[in-house]
Amino acid sequence: MIRVTIESLVKRFDRVPALDHASLEIRPGELAFLLGPSGSGKSTLARIVAGLDTAEEGEIYFDGRVIHTLPAVDRKVGLVFQDDALWPHLSVMDNVGYGLKVRGMNRRERRGRVTEILGTVGIDSLAEKRPASLLPAQRLRVALARALVIEPELLILDDPLSRLEPRARPEFRDELRRLHAETEMTTLVLSSDPREALAMAERLAVIDFGRVVQVGPPGEVYNRPANAFVARFLGPTNLIQGQVEGNDARGDVVVRTPLGRLIGQTNAGPLAAGTPVTVAIRPESIGLGPAVPPGSNRFAATLERQTFLGEVRKVDLRGPGDWPVTALALQAQSAGLREGQSITASVPPELVVVIPGNYAGRTDRG
Question: Is residue 366 over pLDDT 50?
Answer without folding.
Answer: no
